[in-house]
Amino acid sequence: MERRTIGAAALAVGAVGLGCMPMSWAYNGSRQRGDESLRAVHRALDLGSTLLDTADMYGPFTNELLVGRALKERRQDAFVSTKVGLLVGEQHIVANGRPGYVRRACDASLRRLQTDVIDLYQLHRADPEVPVEETWGAMADLVRAGKVRALGLCAVGARGGRRSGGRLHDATIRQLERVQQVFPVSAVEAELSVWSPEALDTLLPWCETRGIGFLAAMPLGNGFLTGTLTPGEGFEPDDLRARHPRFTAEMMAANQPIVVGLRRVARRHGEGVTPAQVALAWVLAQGRHVVPVPGSKQERWVTENAAAAGLRLTELDLAEVAGLPRALGSWD
């Protein structure tokens, strides 16, 4: 698989990563099976999808434990990214950016991941009660201590900005400008897909001009862009899509022309090419430091996603995708 670099340190990863969250959290809880997910991780590494993206809050903690089982056997094959800064309660999620907590959380992640060093340690969300510079400074100390190789930051949630018409990533860029004064940012993780392209406006250009890697979260639109979801079929209560404004039956039906367009482009590239692969190839075409991180928990989808790294979209393809209808949601 093609290799891409993250940050000024030129950390090399496979062009398509693996989002591990669905293996333990947020999607179809009844279908989560540890052994099956472990096989999916091994398959990803076999195919060159070396970036494994997890977080301590996924589960919580169980996702890191699962990834740790794979790392115990194949640490040299993997680039592990995990996150800090969010705590999961019974019915709520809260931020914690206190330096002492960051240090303890890193040590706990290292134990669960069964490794001596985390390749990319990301701030999941800034704590509104703690200056972000203090949190980032504690994370920088972990790099100096040899526990972490590089630091990243996840984009601030953008749903409110989308509803209000504001520029979605202004708050994230302000945070980035602050923490960059403390210690270099190697990567930013934010949503980027055919149906959520807003990062192209300001956030991705900001990263490109500074040599910062961009991890594209949800590059398959939470599964919608795969074309495998049926409008009105419904989701399990613990599935985040059950409350997502683009996954009502009405909105899924209204957005089907996007999948139809991706399928049309796929057909031009031959039998077996899928809408999901076109969606990932579109993300890959947005910049040489962009790495899509599709979530998956099955070998078959990992294999399909990895193959997208070899799909080259033509100018005609890219123009056709750019001309697809804007995705609708209940906020529109």
Report what the structure shows:
This protein is of the alpha/beta class and about 325 residues long. It has helices spanning about 35-45, 60-75, 100-115, 130-145, 160-165, 170-180, 205-210, 250-255, 255-270, 275-285, 300-305, 315-320; strands at about 5, 10-15, 20, 50-55, 80-85, 85-90, 95, 120-125, 150-155, 185-190, 215, 290-295. The strands form 3 sheets. The chain has an 8-stranded parallel sheet with strand order 3-4-5-8-9-10-11-12. A two-stranded antiparallel ribbon has the order 1-2. It has a two-stranded antiparallel sheet with strand order 6-7. Helix 1 packs across helix 2, helix 1 runs parallel beside helix 11 (about 300-305) and helix 2 crosses helix 3 (about 100-115). The longest helix has 15 residues, at about 100-115. It is globular and about 50 Å long. It starts with a strand and ends in a 10-residue tail after the last helix. Mean pLDDT is about 90; it is low at about 160-165.
Main sheet characteristics: 8 strands, parallel
Question: Roughly what is the average pLDDT, rounded to an integer?
Answer: 92
What is the straight-line distance between the termini? 39 Å
What is the spatial order of strands in the main beta sheet? 3-4-5-8-9-10-11-12
Instruction: Compute the CA-based radius of gyration.
Output: 19 Å
Q: Report the count of strand segments.
A: 12
The percent of residues in helical segments reads 25-40%
Q: Which stretches are poorly predicted, pLDDT < 50 over at least 5 residues? A: 160-165
